[in-house]
Structure formats: structure tokens, C-alpha cells
Design brief:
- There is one protein chain.
- By secondary structure, the protein is of the alpha/beta class.
- The protein has two domains: 403 residues, no CATH class; 148 residues, STAS domain (Transcription Regulator spoIIAA, 2-Layer Sandwich), CATH 3.30.750.24.
- It is 58% helix and 6% strand.
- The protein has a six-stranded mixed β-sheet.
- One of its GO terms (molecular function) is secondary active sulfate transmembrane transporter activity.
- Keywords: Membrane, Transmembrane, Transmembrane helix.
């Protein structure tokens, strides 16, 4: 529990806030959520991604170093707006929004965010005094190189402390997971090393009178004692920053909700439970709104806390309440003990926590399954890492939507044949044994929409396929008497689509070929009737391809 408190304090510093804000956000939001939420699995707390988003987006409005008070006010205002958006999403049943960020985009975004967070921890890990506020790779590396070239700008002891602590906690955690008898090392190990490194830092800095002169940088005094009074007066929604803050609030609301619900779904599925996204949005929204009134910044489902609850076997929200009360007790009585915790240790704790955000195995799986998805993944990754969070997400979402549009309008045309020994028809490429019926050219439109974007392509492709089939049969004359179009996959058609079918019908009629439609959806057939297309093709509309073939043969090539 102590390590989770340190993690929360580290996330607060990542958000460019005082460490105690991480503790505040681990008390009020979990208590409110425990009373409102439908999920019994999610445990609320600040997370690395939200903290990085707040820092990277709001520092463009206020400098967190030179105007910390104004910056904190904007963070609390953004938190309030995040809650408002989440509440609105839930009340208006916008739960589907969490699925608009494709899985591939999230994988790329999280990997880049993890690297960005890790790069930001170089400040604490190296004890750098003057560090860039930007999160892109180029700016951070420039700042690191500039600081390392000047011995007075960084502290080697900090780097030694941070690297050693990172190695020890990773080793003890790995050992605890590999050997079930040593399971206690996963939780007790990090706490033990925090105490050890704090004692060492105390001994090294013992003879220094001022915190600024310490050889090993430490957290120093942390405001504790109790929760802060109301921060309602710090929330401003009517000043010159309202428009950018609304954009920031919307962006963080979508990402934070997606992260929280993803955590909830993962652990709910392990126990066979169901999670309602709309109810969760309402709970998260109210939680963040009230939290912003009590000096809390954005909180959502915490993977580390939820995993701790799951591994402990807890199945109710009582454990969340207990964890929140434990943080309150720590805030009341133990903040003085945190004075000599090295900042490098805090940075190492965050580095160990974000390692799970980089999923190379999943990225490779996306590459093998769908190259277009991988393009969205790598686009989001490069955009976030080298530009900004907004640009990275915009790239990923744009590529994902472009993929949807391409799939929706791409004219998938398949030649269909009869499967031997059955009454079924199938794609001749998928089923090579399918037999083509003499005198019939049967095609299936695999696109869900026949519209202005693909109607002409569909018509031309059908005509080209007919020509190719005639060439294969070495026939100079037209051998087809009927063209049957299977429209079972077609969900919608517009006026351009109907016009293309009319042009196809005219072209076929000139060559003595009759057009028939098989298995149309009611939305499609209704429009075809209104446009008088059904009359123009002689009423040849059938329930299935088999019925169309049977009746056309039975009519001896007459009009059905």
C-alpha cells in the first residue's frame, strides 16, 4: 500500500503538481466511485497516462514552474470539465465512444506515452535541475544532453540511487512472481528498498543544512495532516482559457474513460461479470466533478490498484473504501516519514509501473493480422513520441476511420457458383469445387453500401468480369442469358447506386441479357421499388440465388 501511495505521488509530480495531490486523488474519488459504480472490480486512482496528458496539454497555457498556482487552477478546472464530459457521455448513452479509439491506436498511443513518461523521469533519475517541460523525444534528448554536458546541472548520486532501486524492485518482483513461496516479495520487496534507500539518503545528506545543498535530491516536506479545504473557488470556466480547456477536457475524458473501462472489462471477464459503459461513465463523471472540488485531479481505473485487489481475492467495493481510508491515515500521520525518500526512487517506481504499457507482442500480432491496423498503431506511436499527444491521436484515429471508409465503400464483387450435392451457392475462389451454371452469370456484392463512392466501380467490375468469363470460354458471342446479383450483404443503396444498376440493366438488355436481384434487404428493395427499378427489370426479384436460377430455368428464358 505504501508503494501505491508513492506511485500516486509520483504521478502527481508527473502532472507537474505537488506530491500530495496524488494522495488527495486516491481518497475522495475512490470513495465516491464505491458508492455509485456498477463494477465491483475497478479501483480508482491517478494513472500515468492521465497525468502525462494534463502536463503536456496544460503547460502550453500556464508554466507550472513560474506560475504554479495558476497552473494548479487550470488542472482542477480541466478535471471538472473531464467529469462534466464523462457524465454527459453516460447520461446521453454515449458508451460506444470508448470503442472509437481502435485497439491498434490505443496500443501505439500507450507505448509512446510510456516512453514519454519514461523520458520525463530522467529529470528525477539524473537529478537534473533545469529540464524541458515538453514530452517529445527530440526536446527531451536535447535537454538531457545539455544537462549532462554541465556537471553542475545533474547529480551522479541520484542516477546511482535510481538505477540501483529500479534493479532491486524489478528483481524482487520477478522473483516473487516466479516462486509462489516468495509471493510476498512482490509487495514487501519494494517497500523494504524504499526504507533502505531513504535511510542511505538521510545519512548522506545529514550534514547539509539546506535542501538545495543535498547531494541526493529528496522529496522534502510534504503537506499532510488532512484533506485540503474546498477548491471550488479555484475552478474557472469563464476566463480566456475556457476554449482550450474544453478541448483538453474532452480529449482526456475520452482517453481516461477508455483506459478505466478497459481495466474494468479485463478484470470483470475473469470473474464472468458484466460492465455497463454508460453507468461507469456516470460514476466516473460524478467522481471527477466532486474530486475537482476537493483538490483532486483526474482519476480513473488504476491497473495497479485493481490488480492488487484482484490478487487479494476481494470481490466487493469494501476493499476500495479500506484502501482510501489507509491513504487518508498515511496523509494524516506518515507524510513526515516521506521527507528523505530520494526523487530518483520515485522516478524508478514510475518506470517500473509503466513497463506494462509497452506491448511489443501485441504490436507484432497486429502487424501479422492487419497491416492497416498496424499503420494506425505506428502512426499514433510516432505522432505522440515525436510531436504531441493530440497529433498522435489524430493520426491514429484518422487512419482507423479511413480504413472503415475504405472497407465500407470498396466494391467487393465475387463470382458465385453452385456447390455440388447441395442447393447452396458460394464464392468460386473460396470454394473451387463450385460449379458455374451455363447461361448464368452470378455475382455477389460484398460491400455493405452501394453509393456514389463505389457504384460506378461495381458496375464496371461486373461488366469486366463478364467479359473475362466469355474470353475464358473462347466464345465470341455472348453466352449469358441471365445475370443474377446476390445483394444479401448490401445494407443500403442511394440514388447513385440505383442509377448504376439501371445503366447495367440497359447495357445487358442491349445484348439480350436479363438482370435479376436475389435476396435483397428490405431497406434496399424498398428504395428499388420507389425508384421503379423492380418494374424495369421485369419484377425479377427473388428470395435466394437458388430460387432465381430455378425459376429462370423453369420459365425457359422467359420473363419472370
Amino acid at each position: 500500500m505504501m508503494v501505491l501511495n508513492l506511485q500516486s505521488m509520483g504521478y502527481a509530480t508527473l502532472a507537474q503538481l505537488s506530491p500530495e495531490y496524488g494522495l488527495y486523488s486516491s481518497i475522495i474519488p475512490p470513495l465516491i466511485y464505491a458508492m455509485l459504480a456498477s463494477s465491483r472490480e475497478i479501483v480508482i486512482g491517478p494513472i500515468a497516462v492521465d497525468s502525462m496528458l494534463l502536463s503536456s496539454l496544460i503547460r502550453n497555457l500556464k508554466d507550472p514552474i513560474h506560475d504554479s498556482v495558476g497552473y494548479t487552477q487550470l488542472v482542477l478546472t480541466a478535471t471538472f470539465l473531464v467529469g462534466v464530459f464523462q457524465l454527459a457521455f453516460g447520461l446521453f448513452r454515449f458508451g460506444f465512444l470508448v470503442d472509437y479509439l481502435s485497439h491498434a491506436t490505443i496500443v501505439g498511443f500507450l507505448a509512446a506515452a510510456a516512453l514519454g513518461i519514461g523520458l520525463q523521469q530522467l529529470k528525477g533519475l539524473l537529478g537534473i535541475k533545469h529540464f524541458t517541460n515538453k514530452t517529445d523525444l527530440i526536446s527531451v534528448m536535447k535537454s538531457v544532453c545539455t544537462s549532462l554536458s554541465n556537471q553542475s546541472e545533474w547529480h551522479p548520486f541520484n542516477f546511482l540511487f535510481g538505477l540501483s532501486f529500479l534493479f532491486f524492485i524489478l528483481f524482487t518482483t520477478h522473483l516473487g512472481r516466479r516462486n509462489k513461496k516468495l509471493f510476498w516479495l512482490s509487495t514487501a520487496g519494494p517497500l523494504f528498498w524504499v526504507i533502505v534507500f531513504s535511510v542511505i539518503a538521510y545519512r548522506i545528506n545529514l550534514h547539509k543544512l539546506k535542501v538545495e545543498d543535498y547531494i541526493v535530491e529528496v522529496l522534502g516536506p510534504i503537506k499532510g495532516g488532512s484533506l485540503k479545504s474546498s477548491s471550488l473557488y479555484k475552478i474557472h470556466v469563464g476566463d480566456e482559457f475556457v476554449v482550450p480547456l474544453i478541448k483538453i477536457g474532452f480529449t482526456i475524458a475520452v482517453i481516461s474513460t477508455t483506459m478505466g473501462i478497459s481495466v474494468g472489462r479485463s478484470f470483470a471477464s475473469l470473474r464472468g461479470n458484466h460492465l455497463d459503459p454508460n453507468k461507469e461513465m456516470v460514476s466516473l463523471g460524478l467522481m471527477n466533478i466532486v474530486g475537482s472540488f476537493t483538490s483532486c485531479y483526474v482519476a480513473t481505473g488504476s491497473l495497479a490498484r485493481t490488480a492488487l485487489k484482484y490478487n487479494a481475492g476481494s470481490e466487493t467495493m469494501v476493499s476500495s473504501i479500506v484502501m482510501a481510508l489507509m491513504v487518508l491515515l498515511s496523509l494524516r500521520f506518515l507524510t513526515g516519514l516521506l521527507y528523505f525518500i530520494p526523487k530518483a526512487v520515485l522516478a524508478a517506481i514510475i518506470l517500473s509501473a509503466i513497463s506494462g504499457l509497452i506491448d511489443l507482442k501485441k504490436a507484432y500480432e497486429i502487424w501479422k493480422v492487419d497491416k492497416f491496423d498496424f499503420l494506425a498503431c505506428i502512426g499514433a506511436f510516432i505522432g505522440v513520441l515525436f510531436a504531441s499527444v493530440e497529433i498522435g491521436l489524430a493520426i491514429g484515429v484518422t487512419i482507423s476511420f479511413f480504413k472503415i471508409i475504405m472497407i465500407s465503400i470498396q466494391p467487393g464483387i465475387r463470382i458465385v457458383g453452385k456447390l455440388p450435392g447441395t442447393y447452396d451457392f458460394g464464392d468460386v475462389e473460396q470454394y473451387p469445387m463450385a460449379v458455374k451454371i451455363p447461361g448464368f452469370f452470378i455475382v455477389s456484392i460484398k460491400s455493405s453500401v452501394l453509393c456514389f463512392a463505389n457504384a460506378t466501380l461495381v458496375r464496371k467490375r461486373i461488366e469486366r468480369f463478364m467479359t473475362e468469363e466469355e474470353v475464358k470460354d473462347d466464345k465470341e458471342e455472348n453466352t449469358f442469358k441471365f445475370v443474377i446479383i446476390d445483394t444479401s450483404s448490401l445494407m443500403s443503396i442511394d440514388t447513385a447506386g440505383i442509377a448504376s444498376l439501371e445503366e447495367l440493366n440497359k447495357s445487358l438488355t442491349i445484348h439480350g441479357v436479363k438482370l435479376a436481384i436475389a435476396n435483397p434487404r428490405w431497406q434496399v428493395i424498398q428504395k428499388l421499388r420507389v425508384a421503379n427499378f423492380v418494374d424495369k427489370i421485369g419484377g425479377r426479384v427473388f428470395l435466394s440465388v437458388g430460387e432465381a436460377v430455378e425459376l429462370c430455368i423453369g420459365a425457359k428464358m422467359g420473363i419472370v
